[in-house]
Design goal:
Number of helices: 17
Oligomer: single chain
Shape: elongated
Helix content: 40-55%
Largest sheet: 11 strands, mixed
Strand order of the largest sheet: 3-4-5-6-7-2-10-14-13-12-11
Number of strands: 19
Number of domains: 3
Distance between the termini: 54 Å
């Protein structure tokens, strides 16, 4: 009995290149001294000369900021777009990006009303009943400005500013785009798979580029574009200590394993899903993240632990959840297996959100990807089976460049040849001749042996030899069935006769189990469509 192997073991035979790289990052740009009420009061006093704790003066800053954005757009002929509810911002970005001709610049400015954390003034009363203003943390729906830009190092990114105090911003980048640009500058040859590397000529050099990325590159990007884009704070306020710092809100850590051929990826992933639907159990999740998971006792580990299979169109993806962290596996554009850990809260791993902690977060994310592949098991190597089937059914090309046709299972002649090989293996172990082949194949095709020409028989023998199903005995005109030929013939003919033929027959005959089942499915699907008004 063949024991199951880990996914990592099976993949080792089919991966032609693999790259680890940080993918999408969502970062918080904030002024540390303005994240709490006392800091806000300090700003009011030191920068605005106010003695009363009130958020009212910030209205003037907000208005000035909004006017500055509109003026900036008009002066530089930048489109301003109002995002509508339900509209995909990325789709709009890609349309503008397709028309963009420069290596760097601003694609457009968008805005939307969105919920944000902010400060408000509320009225309180002292012990004598006198009222006084008091600043408190709150949430509200306010205008958000989106600057969609292209950077010569990072490619497309966006920076979003809240138009209300304390004017926090969000930065979204993709490190794969940064790495691709650095690799191109070094003259490295690689295939682009959207936000991934496909086949690369020098994987070590590309990996070195990906490993070199750190917080200093993000800091440089923020400083560069803060000097270009309008924002609420003056240079004097920045010099007084009211400058933007950066922290990590969300980071994706990806492992892209390019496979030897697309079919290997799809059949491997389909089998991986079937064999690992229980991988979200707490004991296995603990192994993936190298954490002790407690489900009982005084201090159980919080969060949901689960496995989900999500199908987008016809492409399935496997999701494993650990608290707010998730790992996603899917086939990348039919060329690679993608394993991607998304960390939404670094504190779950006892890592602070500051940029200086990116190396520690990187270690968690990339290690989780590798551990997942070592924890996942696969009952067999599906790529080997697909390769074996393709070796029989697909054409082969000889060293001299001649093309020899395959043996597709839907061809009755090919089915007859495989059936005869199974017979010869048992009845004629010492070999068979061309005349033997013609005599046995003819009745399976409802023909007489003389109706099959010697040329047709020679053609069949050549196909069987080139597909390693038979071999010619040296110095004779006799052929023997190989072990591969015997095994494939027995298995494929049984599948053909007992599964394909039987199943298709039942589908067409009312009253059979399969026909009854498929009819019930069709009716249930029709009722569901009717209930959902799909047919109307």
């Amino acid at each position: 009995m063949t024991l199951p192997r880990t996914a990592a073991d099976v993949l080792r035979d089919h991966v032609v290149s693999e790259i680890e790289c940080i993918d999408r990052m969502y970062l918080n740009c904030y002024v540390p001294r303005l994240q709490y009420p006392k800091g806000l009061i300090g700003f009011l006093r030191s920068q605005l000369g106010m003695t009363v704790a009130s958020t009212a003066p910030f209205g003037a800053i907000t208005n000035a900021f909004n006017r500055a954005v509109q003026r900036f757009a008009a002066v530089n002929s930048i489109p301003v777009i109002h995002f509508q509810k339900g509209e995909r911002k990325d789709d709009i970005m890609h349309k503008h990006l397709a028309r963009f001709q420069s290596t760097e610049g601003i694609l457009f400015i968008g805005w939307a009303q969105e919920k944000a954390n902010l400060f408000r003034t509320e009225t309180r009363h002292d012990a004598r009943g006198a009222s006084y203003p008091w600043i408190v943390s709150a949430t509200g729906v306010v205008k958000q400005w989106y600057f969609y830009c292209v950077d010569q190092d990072f490619g497309p990114f966006f920076l979003k500013f809240c138009s209300y105090f304390p004017y926090n911003a969000r930065l979204c980048i993709n490190v794969h785009h940064w790495a691709q640009r650095q690799a191109a500058r070094q003259g490295l040859t690689f295939e682009v798979l959207d936000n991934a590397f496909g086949h690369v000529e020098d994987a070590d050099a590309v990996q070195e580029i990906c490993d070199s990325f750190d917080g200093s590159h993000i800091r440089a990007l923020v400083d560069k574009w803060m000097a270009v884009l309008p924002h609420p704070f003056t240079p004097e306020q920045h010099g007084a200590g009211y400058g933007y710092e950066v922290s990590i809100l969300q980071a994706e850590f990806s492992l892209t394993q390019v496979l030897d051929r697309p079919m290997s990826g799809r059949i491997f992933f389909d089998q991986l899903i079937r064999d690992n639907l229980a991988i979200g159990r707490p004991d296995l999740v603990g192994l993936i993240f190298d954490r002790q998971i407690r489900r009982r006792g005084k201090h159980p580990t919080p969060g949901v632990f689960r496995t989900r299979v999500i199908t987008d169109d016809v492409t399935p993806s496997l999701h494993i959840d650990f608290q707010t962290t998730s790992i996603k596996q899917y086939q990348k554009l039919g060329r690679a297996l993608r394993t991607e850990t998304t960390i939404n809260n670094p504190i779950e791993f006892r890592i602070n959100k500051g940029l200086k902690n990116l190396p520690a977060l990187r270690e968690v994310g990339f290690s989780a990807n590798r551990r997942l592949l070592r924890v996942q098991y696969i009952s067999h190597n599906p790529a080997d089976g697909a390769n074996a089937l393709a070796k029989v059914c697909r054409p082969v090309t000889t060293p001299t460049g001649q093309r020899v046709a395959g043996l597709p299972l839907t061809d009755p002649r090919c089915t007859a040849l495989l059936t005869v090989l199974a017979v010869f293996r048992i009845q004629q172990p010492h070999g068979f001749t061309a005349a033997d082949l013609r005599r046995h194949v003819a009745p399976l095709l409802d023909k007489q042996p003389e109706e099959i020409t010697p040329g047709q028989t020679s053609y069949d023998l050549r196909r069987l030899v080139k597909h390693d199903l038979i071999r010619r005995k040296h110095g004779t005109h006799r052929y023997q069935v190989t072990d591969t030929g015997a095994h494939h013939a027995l298995f494929l003919t049984r599948v053909q006769h007992q599964v394909f033929n039987t199943g298709l027959a039942e589908l067409t005959q009312p009253g059979t189990r399969l026909h009854t089942a498929i009819s019930a499915f069709d009716k249930a699907l029709g009722r569901l469509a009717s209930d959902a008004n799909i047919n109307s």
